[in-house]
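TICKET #2291
ISSUE: user wants both folds in one file
ATTACHMENT 1:
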Amino acid sequence: MDVVAGPLLADSAAGEQQRVVERFLAAMTSGDVPGLLKVLAPDVVIMGGIAARIDPGGENGTAVSFVIEDGRITRIYAIRNPHKFTRLGEATELRR
């Protein structure tokens, strides 16, 4: 499993969020189910499609984004389409 870290948040919560993600990754890669349950909120939501676009000769991966509240992961978003990866480094303004 390759893990690529993106830019960290500039606020004081960034360190805590990084530690939660590191604990999540350690539990996932070692098969530590009790450790995994400690970092996931009881009502965690996982968003992502089960299908993947495969380009001949290309590599496919999954980009994962987390929402962390009160020291636990409450949402996991996964993107597996490599064509969407090109925008991962861009800031996007959200509006209602």
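ATTACHMENT 2:
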Amino acid sequence: MTTSAYTPISCTFHGYLESWMKQQQACKIRYRQDDGSSVQVSSRIIDLFSWQGAEYLLMEKGQLIRLERLESVNDTSSLGLEI
């Protein structure tokens, strides 16, 4: 897991993540891996939390993603939204 300094995501995108988590439906999640490649999965968002100075998304099978690595969820881009 990446240990570099965390770059916060926008409050707007975080609000979308909270809404999708509450809906308990599978989401189309695209994120960057440590090597820079993009991966897309379909999973429910189980939790959003802060840990050791970074924010994370927990998916239903236990996978953690740092929020700054998210590229899009349900075709809503994390880029270009104000922090």
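RESOLUTION: both attachments delivered.
EXTRA DETAIL ON ATTACHMENT 2: The CA atoms of residues 6 and 54 lie 5 Å apart.
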